[in-house]
């Protein structure tokens, strides 16, 4: 199937607005069930595939997402370019609520997740280069597309992937800041590395929902506020992707 772009929607993005003539595809994968169907339709004159990372009713928590099945399903339907849309907390001062970032680095703090397609019986062991965890050409296209759409985005930043589903402690975030993380989210890994294993061009559109623990003025992080900020940032995503598809 010809798919120009696949989008994996995170918290706040459970369907793709404006997708026309949509068909649903339930894919059997060697890794078990994906988070849900892949919805394929027309958007901005191109073929777009969409999957809700947490399921369409947000029932799959970050540590239980079957990242391998999701990527496998998209790839088997023909997707070779994927944008992961991820809700994040901002650590860097200029990465406050509603800011959109296209990160360029990752530190993985997750555990107990399947991080490779080569850990099934008899599979060939593959060591891949991951110096640059995102596809630079796709990152550039995304940044240019955001500019054309008139949506400000920040170019670059280090995404620290945590286990979730709880938010982090202040001490954990202080450590992540010392490590060089600019953003924190629960779903950026192993999605990025699995995409690389399948030779999928992959970039992340990180939507800042809140300042991470200890980074803002508030003593506690309000989950209601997270979702309000996310809704505002998510509303910009289709315009960016429409420009991306024109490029
Ligand atoms: N931490 C981890 N993941 C997140 C956050 C956060 O503060 N906000 C949105 N996703």
UniProtKB/TrEMBL annotation:
Enzyme class: transferase
Catalysed reaction equations from the record: S-methyl-5'-thioinosine + phosphate = 5-(methylsulfanyl)-alpha-D-ribose 1-phosphate + hypoxanthine
Example GO molecular function: glycosyltransferase activity
SUPFAM superfamilies tied to this protein: Purine and uridine phosphorylases
Keywords: Glycosyltransferase, Purine salvage, Transferase
UniProt cross-references to InterPro entries, sorted A to Z: MTAP (IPR010044), Nucleoside_phosphorylase_d (IPR000845), Nucleoside_phosphorylase_sf (IPR035994)
Binding site for substrate: 186, 210-212
The organism's place on the tree of life at top rank: Bacteria
Pathway(s) per entry: Purine metabolism; purine nucleoside salvage
Site-annotated residues for Important for substrate specificity: 168, 223
Domain Nucleoside phosphorylase: residue ranges: 5-245
EC number: 2.4.2.44
Residue sites binding phosphate per the record: 11, 53-54, 187
Quaternary data: Homotrimer.
Purpose: Catalyzes the reversible phosphorylation of S-methyl-5'-thioinosine (MTI) to hypoxanthine and 5-methylthioribose-1-phosphate. Involved in the breakdown of S-methyl-5'-thioadenosine (MTA), a major by-product of polyamine biosynthesis. Catabolism of (MTA) occurs via deamination to MTI and phosphorolysis to hypoxanthine.
Family the UniProt entry places it in: Belongs to the PNP/MTAP phosphorylase family. MTAP subfamily.
Other remarks in the entry: Although this enzyme belongs to the family of MTA phosphorylases based on sequence homology, it has been shown that conserved amino acid substitutions in the substrate binding pocket convert the substrate specificity of this enzyme from 6-aminopurines to 6-oxopurines.
PANTHER family: S-METHYL-5'-THIOADENOSINE PHOSPHORYLASE (PTHR42679)
Name listed for the protein in its UniProt record: Probable S-methyl-5'-thioinosine phosphorylase
Species of the source: Dyella koreensis
Lineage start: Bacteria, Pseudomonadati, Pseudomonadota, Gammaproteobacteria, Lysobacterales
């Amino acid at each position: 199937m010809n798919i120009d772009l696949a989008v994996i929607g995170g918290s706040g993005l459970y369907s793709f607005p404006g997708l026309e003539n949509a068909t649903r595809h339930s894919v059997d994968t060697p890794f078990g069930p994906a988070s849900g169907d892949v919805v394929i339709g027309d958007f901005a004159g191109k073929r777009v595939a969409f999957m809700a990372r947490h399921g369409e009713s947000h029932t799959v928590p970050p540590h239980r997402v079957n990242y391998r099945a999701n990527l496998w399903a998209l790839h088997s339907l023909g997707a070779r370019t994927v944008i992961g849309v991820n809700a994040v907390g901002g650590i860097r001062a200029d990465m406050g609520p509603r800011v959109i970032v296209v990160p360029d680095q990752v530190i993985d703090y997750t555990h107990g997740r399947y991080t490779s397609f080569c850990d099934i019986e008899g599979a060939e062991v593959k060591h891949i280069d991951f110096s640059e965890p995102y596809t630079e050409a796709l990152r550039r296209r995304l940044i240019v597309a955001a500019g054309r759409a008139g949506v400000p985005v920040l170019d670059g930043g280090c995404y620290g992937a945590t286990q979730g589903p709880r938010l982090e402690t202040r001490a954990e975030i202080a450590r992540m800041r010392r490590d060089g993380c600019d953003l924190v989210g629960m779903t950026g890994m192993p999605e990025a590395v699995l995409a690389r294993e399948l030779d999928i061009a992959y970039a992340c559109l990180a939507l800042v929902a809140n300042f991470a623990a200890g980074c803002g003025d508030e003593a506690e992080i309000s989950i209601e506020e997270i979702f309000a900020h996310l809704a505002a940032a998510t509303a910009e995503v289709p315009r960016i992707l429409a420009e991306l598809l024109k490029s």
